[in-house]
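Archive record
______________

***
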Amino acid sequence: MAQLIDGKQISKEIKDELKEKVAALKAQGIEGAMAVIQVGEDPASSVYVNNKKKACEYIGIRSESYELAESTSEQELLDLIERLNNDPKINGILCQLPVPAHMDENKIIRAIAPEKDVDGFHTQNVGALVVGQKGFVSCTPAGVIQLLKRSGIEIAGKHCVVVGRSNIVGKPMSLLMLKEHATVTICHSRTSDLQAVCKQADILIVAVGKPKMITADYVKEGAVVIDVGIHRQENGKLCGDVDFEQVEPIARAITPVPGGVGPMTIAMLMNNCVQAMTGEA
């Protein structure tokens, strides 16, 4: 029976620690505020944005909401970001992705001042991660590191296989595991014999975007399995990229979906917001 890595509980621990930190900062006269921008009314984006606002309220920082129509022009969005960049009362700026098709996502990400980029997507922050300098780290990979550390799972010296090479999860995840002294293999859709490569992993991190793709045949006995995926099945239930029922009996530890990686993303976003208040990033 695998150890269940409880992201809900660990994220609550982190948010409670941040709540104390924010209270201490307020006592010194340091206030924090995060601007949350959403363009359009994508239902999934609305849920995420709402969860982020609730988390801000919980830890004690103000959130300013900017809900823009789908028809908003790219220039109007860029002008808003510029105004928020120059507002000393705003510590963090988050533009919920994806943006509508008529906008250049990369241009939007680059427009946010690196010191306010609490998502950790700006090329300056990504570059800082590559060379080991200070900067904001993408929230989902940062959350995975906290899940492993706070669950007592040794990373140093282990072989970590990351399935997926996205800019938001796969690439930063591999860099963070390297930083923690793991030996890292990155896999993707062109990897030859993916099953054999995955089976070598002591720690298998899956962010591939395909429901239940990773079955027991991909997992070494006693491996730690982190499932970053989330999908809604036809029966309405959520599942991840890993077939939990198949993999759980052979894994040493595993994250469930929901309640694994998901809550950690928002906890680490709040961590970045608090770092932005103190200038620690």
